[in-house]
UniProtKB/TrEMBL annotation:
Keywords: Calcium. This is Alpha-mannosidase. It holds the Pfam family Glyco_hydro_92N. Residues 39-274 form the Glycosyl hydrolase family 92 N-terminal domain. Its cofactor is Ca(2+). Residues 280-744 form the Glycosyl hydrolase family domain. InterPro entries: 6-hairpin_glycosidase_sf, GH-type_carb-bd, GH92_a_mannosidase_put, GH92_N, Glyco_hydro_92, PNGase. GO terms for molecular function: carbohydrate binding; peptide-N4-(N-acetyl-beta-glucosaminyl)asparagine amidase activity. SUPFAM superfamilies: Six-hairpin glycosidases.
Length: 762
C-alpha cells in the first residue's frame, strides 16, 4: 500500500510549478496521463436524493473537507446539495449518502469586511456568516475542491491527507484577510453542543467541538496552523464578544485577522483532527503534513485515489459508463473512515482512549446497507484492509458489548434493523481472511446474536418477531436477524460447533413463519401465529409505522438471500416462484402518502433505491433462468445510474449503491450474505482487469458484448469450459481469466441444469 507521506515528499518538487496555476483551475493540469481520477465526476449524486459528499479527501480518510451549504434538511445531510448556491464555510467531516445528518464539524470561512456571527438566513447575506457562489467557479476532482466566494471576492482551494485538511485562500488587494473559525455550525441535526477555541500563538489555534446528535457523544479535537501571522482576534459566543485568548461556549466563534496588504495575499491553513486529544492532532499534523506545499499535497491526494482506482481497469467504448463506473468506485472508498491517530490511539466505544498495537481503527459503519455489496467488493479488491475493518468491529464489541449496528465516530446509533455486524464478520471469516482473532470473532457474533435488544428477545422466544410484541418493523427485523443467524450458523459449521449450528440454522428459517401461502407474501404475524387481521395491501407502506423497514410487502417478500432454495419451496416449486418474481418488476400500485422517501428507483415494485431489493434480480439463476437476471441487470445499470447530478436512484448509503453498480457491471453479485458465491448477471464492459492483491489479477472478458448481446451463452475459466452460473469466492480470488461469450438471445443451455445453478448453503 502506498504511503501517503512518501507521496507528498516525492511530489514536493512539483509545487513550484503548480503553485503558478490559477486558484480555480480545472484540476486536470495535475493529473498524469493514464490517471483514472480524470474519469471521476464527484457531482454525480449531489442532486436528487443521492446525499453524496463533495469535497477533498483521500481513500478512507478521517477528513472529508468540503463546503457546507446554508440550508439544512434531508437533502443536505452531507452538507451539500447541487440546488444550493450558499456556503457557510468549509467543514472537515462529512457523511456521504446517509439518510440522517451529522458531523459538519470545525468550519472555516475566509472573508473580508464585517460579518455577523450566526448561520444566517437565505436571501440576506448580512444576517450571517455565509456567501453566495457561482457554480461555474467550482472545480472538483478526487482529493481537490476549489470555489470563489462572491461576497468576499476570495478564491478557495482545498485538499487533504488522511487526518489533515489543507486550505488555501487567495484575497484581493486592498482587503484585510480574515478567517472565521465556526464551532457553532454543524449539519443542523444536532442538539446540545460545545466549542472550545484557544489562540496559542500568532499562527496556531486549537480546541475541540462536542456535539450530541445522531452520534450521541461526539468530541473532535483539532489544531490549526496558519501560514501568516494572526494580528487580530475576536472570540465570541454568537454575537457576544469575549476577552482573552480562549473561549468555551455552546456557540463558539473566532475571528482571525491577518493585516492589510497592498497586493494580492494568500493565507494557507492546515487543520489536523483527532478523536483523542489536541496533542494527538498536533502529532497527526507533524506526521502527515509538516510542510506547506499545497500543490504537492493535492497531487499526492490525486495519486492516492488513482492508486486505488487502478484496482479495477475497464475497457469500453462507452465513455458515459466509464465515468459512472469510476465515480461509483470512488464513492465506495469514502467510508468507512479512519478513526485513530498516527500514534495508534483512538477513542473507544466506551469513550475511553485506547491504543492499537498495529493497523488502523475505523468508523462510519453503515452495515445494514454495506453488508450486501460494499463489503463483498472490499473482500475482492481491498482484502488487505478487511482485517483492520474486522478488528475495529471486534474492538467495538469488546467496548460496548455487541458488534456494531450502525457505528458513527465511536457511537452506536442502533440505526436500522437486524445484526449486520455479524454478517460482515462472518463474511470475512468464511472467506479465509487472516489477521484477526477467530475465537474472539466467533464469541462476538454469538454474544451479539443472543442479546435481548431491538426485538432479539422475541426472535429468540418465538423464532420470529411477532407484531404484537414489536409493533413496528416486525417482519423486517425478523428477516434481518435470520440473515445474520444463517451467517453465524455457517461459521459454526466451519468450526465444527454442531450445537450452535443447529440452533442458529433453525433461527435462520424465520421467513417460514411470515409466509402466507394463499397470498404468497411475507406478512406480519402475531405471537399466536396469526397473520395481521384486516385488509392486506402489499403496496402500502408507512414509514416507521408498519411491519417493514422503508418498504412494503412486495419488496420485503424477497428478503431471503441466505436460503433462496428453501424460499422457493414455499411457493410450491420453481414455476410459481418465477411467476411471482416476474410480477415484481411489472406490478404497480399506490404506496400511500406515508411511504418512506427511501422507496425509490422503482421498476414495478422492485425498488433499487433501497438496499433490501439489491439481491433480488440475482435470484433468477437459482431457478435456472439466468437470462432474466441479465435483462434486469442491464436495465438497472442503464436506468438507475446516470452521469448526471441526480444519477443515483436513492441515497448513496455510504458506498452500497455504487458497490452494486461496480459488481454488477463486472458481471456478478454476491447473493448469499456471507462467504459467497458470486452469481453471474451480465458483464457490461468488454474487458476488466481486477487486482486481487499479492500480485494476482482476474481478467474478465466479454466477447461480442453490446447492448443487444447481453445474454451469457458460454463461460470459460482459464480456457476451460465453465458451466456454472456462479463462481465461488475461492475460485475468483485465484485469479486468471474468466471469459463470457455473449449473445442477443437467451441461451437454452447455460445455467439451466440443476448442476449449473447456485444453491443456498445449509
Amino acid at each position: 500500500m502506498m504511503n501517503f507521506n512518501n507521496i507528498v515528499a516525492k511530489l514536493a518538487f512539483l509545487g513550484g510549478i503548480l503553485q503558478t496555476l490559477g486558484s480555480c483551475g480545472t484540476g486536470s493540469e495535475y493529473q498524469k496521463s493514464g490517471s483514472l481520477t480524470a474519469h471521476v465526476d464527484p457531482y454525480i449524486g449531489t442532486g436528487g436524493h443521492g446525499h453524496v459528499f463533495l469535497g477533498a479527501n483521500v481513500p478512507y480518510g478521517a477528513v472529508q473537507l468540503g463546503p457546507s451549504n446554508l440550508s439544512t434538511g434531508w437533502d443536505w445531510v452531507s452538507g451539500y446539495h447541487i440546488s444550493d448556491s450558499t456556503i457557510i464555510g468549509f467543514a472537515h467531516q462529512h457523511l456521504s449518502g446517509t439518510g440522517i445528518g451529522d458531523l459538519g464539524d470545525i468550519v472555516l470561512l475566509p472573508f473580508t469586511g464585517d460579518i455577523r456571527f450566526d448561520r444566517g438566513e437565505h436571501g440576506d447575506e448580512q444576517t450571517g456568516a455565509y456567501s453566495l457562489f457561482n457554480r461555474d467557479t467550482e472545480r472538483v476532482r478526487p482529493g481537490y475542491y476549489a470555489v470563489h466566494l462572491d461576497r468576499f471576492d476570495v478564491d478557495v482551494e482545498l485538499t487533504a491527507t488522511s487526518r489533515v485538511g489543507f486550505h488555501k485562500y487567495s484575497y484581493k488587494k486592498d482587503e484585510t484577510p480574515k478567517v472565521l473559525m465556526n464551532l457553532d455550525a454543524g449539519i443542523g441535526w444536532e442538539g446540545e453542543k460545545e466549542g472550545q477555541i484557544t489562540i496559542e500563538n500568532d499562527t496556531v489555534v486549537s480546541g475541540y467541538r462536542y456535539s450530541k446528535g445522531w452520534a450521541k457523544n461526539q468530541k473532535i479535537y483539532f489544531t490549526a496552523t496558519f501560514s501568516q501571522p494572526i494580528v487580530s482576534t475576536r472570540l465570541a459566543d454568537s454575537t457576544a464578544i469575549q476577552e482573552g485568548n480562549s473561549i468555551t461556549a455552546s456557540r463558539a466563534y473566532a475571528e482571525l485577522g491577518f493585516g492589510e496588504v497592498e497586493e494580492f495575499q494568500e493565507v494557507m491553513v492546515k487543520v489536523a483532527l483527532s478523536p483523542v486529544s489536541i496533542a494527538n492532532a498536533k502529532l497527526n499534523l507533524q506526521e502527515e503534513l509538516p510542510g506547506w506545499d499545497f500543490a504537492a499535497t493535492r497531487e499526492a491526494a490525486d495519486a492516492a485515489w488513482n492508486e486505488q482506482l487502478q484496482k479495477v481497469k475497464i475497457e469500453t467504448k462507452d465513455t458515459v459508463a466509464r465515468k459512472i463506473f469510476y465515480t461509483a468506485l470512488y464513492h465506495t472508498m469514502i467510508a468507512p473512515s479512519v478513526f485513530s491517530d498516527v500514534n495508534g490511539e483512538y477513542m473507544g466505544s466506551d469513550f475511553k482512549p485506547h491504543k492499537l498495537a498495529t493497523g488502523e481503527n475505523y468508523t462510519t459503519f453503515s452495515l445494514w446497507d454495506t453488508y450486501r455489496a460494499a463489503h463483498p467488493l472490499m473482500s475482492i479488491i481491498h482484502r488487505d484492509r478487511v482485517p483492520d475493518m474486522v478488528n475495529s468491529m471486534l474492538r467495538i464489541y469488546q467496548e460496548q458489548g455487541k458488534l456494531p449496528v450502525w457505528h458513527l465516530v465511536g457511537n452506536e446509533t442502533d440505526c436500522m434493523v437486524g445484526n449486520p455486524g455479524i454478517i460482515v464478520v462472518a463474511d470475512a471469516y468464511l472467506k479465509g481472511v487472516e489477521g484477526f482473532d477467530k475465537d474472539l470473532a466467533y464469541e462476538a457474533m454469538k454474544v451479539s446474536a443472543m442479546k435481548d435488544d431491538r426485538g432479539l428477545n422475541w426472535h429468540k422466544q418465538y423464532g420470529y418477531v411477532p407484531y404484537d410484541k414489536e409493533e413496528v418493523e416486525s417482519v423486517a427485523k425478523g428477516l434481518e436477524f435470520a440473515i445474520a443467524d444463517w451467517s453465524l450458523a455457517q461459521v459454526a459449521k466451519l468450526r465444527g460447533e454442531q450445537e450452535d449450528y443447529d440452533y442458529f440454522i433453525k433461527r435462520s428459517d424465520a421467513f417460514h413463519h411470515y409466509f402466507d401461502p394463499d397470498l404468497q407474501f411475507l406478512r406480519g404475524v402475531d405471537s399466536e401465529g396469526n397473520f395481521r387481521p384486516g385488509t392486506f395491501d402489499p403496496f402500502h407502506s408507512a414509514h416507521l409505522a408498519n411491519d417493514y423497514t422503508e418498504g412494503n410487502a412486495w419488496q420485503y417478500t424477497w428478503l431471503v438471500p441466505h436460503n433462496v432454495n428453501g424460499f422457493m419451496d414455499l411457493f410450491g416449486g420453481e414455476d410459481r416462484f418465477i411467476a411471482k418474481l416476474d410480477s415484481l418488476f411489472v406490478v404497480e400500485g399506490d404506496l400511500g402518502e406515508d411511504a418512506s422517501p427511501d422507496i425509490s428507483g422503482l421498476i414495478g415494485q422492485y425498488a433499487h433505491g433501497n438496499e433490501p431489493s439489491h439481491h433480488v434480480i440475482y435470484m433468477y439463476p437459482y431457478a435456472g433462468q439466468p437470462w432474466k437476471a441479465a435483462e434486469r441487470v442491464r436495465e438497472t445499470l442503464a436506468t438507475m445510474y446516470t452521469d448526471q447530478v441526480d444519477g443515483l436512484s436513492g441515497n448513496e448509503d455510504v458506498g452500497q449503491m455504487s458497490a452494486w453498480y461496480v459488481l454488477s457491471s463486472l458481471g456478478f453479485y454476491q447473493v448469499s450474505p456471507a462467504g459467497g458465491p458470486f452469481i453471474f448477471g451480465s458483464p457490461l464492459f468488454d474487458k476488466a482487469t481486477v487486482a486481487l492483491g499479492e500480485g494476482k489479477t482476474l481478467e474478465l472478458v466479454a466477447h461480442s458484448n453490446s447492448k443487444e448481446n447481453k445474454y451469457i451463452q458460454e463461460v470459460r475459466l482459464n480456457g476451460e469450459p465453465y458451466t456454472k452460473s456462479y463462481i465461488s469466492y475461492e475460485d475468483l480470488m485465484k485469479g486468471g481469466k474468466l471469459e463470457f461469450d455473449m449473445g442477443n438471445a437467451p441461451s437454452t443451455t447455460f445455467g439451466v441444469t440443476a448442476e449449473s445453478r447456485p444453491k443456498s448453503a445449509r
